[in-house]
Amino acid sequence: FKKVKPISVNYEDYFLPKKDPDGILKNFLEESESRLDLCKNEIGFINGLLIDNQKKNIIDIGCGNGIVSSKFDKRYNKFGIEVSNIAAEKAKKHISNISTKPLESNSYEEEFFDVVFSYHVIEHIYDPISFVENIHHIMKTHGKLVLGSPNFDCAMARRFKENFRLLHDKTHISLFSDFSLKDLLEDSGFQVDYIDYPFFETEYFTKENLNRVFDTSEVSPAFYGNFMTIYATKK
């Protein structure tokens, strides 16, 4: 685990169109299909937790425009946290209960959520230990956590070093490896059930990206292991 000196971030500006590490202009607020493609395993797992007509509480922490939550089964009572007001307004189309305040231990009742989903948020958090502890506090015992993050000790991070593509975002200040994030979760009262590295089933599994591995003078390609999703259970 590595802590990077934080910079001042206006998350209203964060969601403005900007170039990705490959120089392609992206609009995070309008991203839909690519986001859903990356999260299809997570969505399938979360929807598979429901049995019959049971109702469960789920929260998407860092929900952005709410597009992923829109695919969670309608039997879920959906909650979301998004600190960007402009993104939160868009998310309200898909999530009825939205907060624009960062997660605190008293943000919700203790043992309230059956499922917590947080996709590529923890790397932006100044105090990730408290973040995970707060998640633990609001989750029901035996509830499920689905947590996505870059893996800053993956093969491409080791090979490309400062040219690793996920160092391009200067708001990435808490840099975890798969082992260090697993340790944090286990130290915080979770049982880690599975770690997934989505890549081969995504649009990024191309010959072009595979060939880019050879040139370390350029930014690293999208590659297996760059992203990780940890599936965990609250003990």
Structural summary, described in words:
- The chain has helices at residues 11-14, 33-38, 40-47, 85-91, 128-138, 155-160, 178-187, 207-211, and strands spanning 2-3, 18-19, 25-26, 56-61, 76-81, 97-99, 113-119, 139-150, 174-175, 190-196, 227-234.
- By secondary structure, the chain is of the alpha/beta class.
- The longest helix has 11 residues, at 128-138.
- The chain is globular and about 50 Å long.
- The mean pLDDT is 95.
Summarize this structure briefly.
With 235 residues, this protein is an alpha/beta fold. Helices cover 24% and strands 24% of the residues. α4 (85-91) links the parallel β5 (76-81) and β6.
Query: What is the strand arrangement across the widest sheet?
Result: 6-5-4-7-8-11-10
Point out poorly predicted stretches: none
The profile of the biggest β sheet is: 7 strands, mixed
- Class by alpha and beta content: alpha/beta
Helix count? 8
Radius of gyration from the alpha-carbon trace, in angstroms: 17 Å
Strand content: 15-25%
- Global outline: globular
Overall average residue pLDDT: 95
How far apart, in Å, are the first and last alpha carbons?
24 Å
Helicity range of the residues?
10-25%
Number of strands: 11
Element-by-element helix/strand order:
EHEEHHEEHEEHEHEHEHE
